[in-house]
Amino acid sequence: MGVAAEDLPPGRILWHCRRGLKELDVLLERYARGALRGAPAEELRAFEALLELPDPLLARYFLAGDTPPEAPVARLVARIRAYVA
């Protein structure tokens, strides 16, 4: 069982949302601030895994429409895309 999003230091999550591309900053931070609180542990783990990925890969997922091979991360990318649309 994972840690609930509300139990994590919000600054730590938001800090990891800061990327080299402003577009990624906006997408990730908006989702973290608006939709991550109260999210299930699986979604939080997927979000943390997503934040570990390099910027060029994240840009392909969010800006070019590529789909991550890992199912939980792919579901999360789709949720983030829908959330910020």
Any chance you could write out the topology, listing elements then pairs?
Layout: H1 10-17, H2 22-34, H3 41-51, H4 55-62, H5 71-84
Briefly characterize the structure:
This protein is mainly alpha-helical. It has helices at residues 10-17, 22-34, 41-51, 55-62, 71-84.
Characterization of this structure:
The protein is mainly α. It has one domain: Flavinator of succinate dehydrogenase (DNA polymerase, domain 1). 64% of the residues lie in helices and 0% in strands. It has helices spanning 10-17, 22-34, 41-51, 55-62, 71-84. The longest helix has 14 residues, at 71-84. The chain is globular. The model is unreliable at 1-5 (pLDDT under 50).
Into how many domains do the coordinates divide?
1
Uncertain runs: 1-5
Corresponding CATH superfamily: Flavinator of succinate dehydrogenase
What is the CATH architecture term? Orthogonal Bundle
Series of H and E elements: HHHHH
The percent range for helix content is 55-70%
The CATH class assignment is Mainly Alpha
- SS field, number of helical segments: 5
* Radius of gyration, taken over Cα atoms and rounded to an integer in Å: 12 Å
CATH topology: DNA polymerase, domain 1
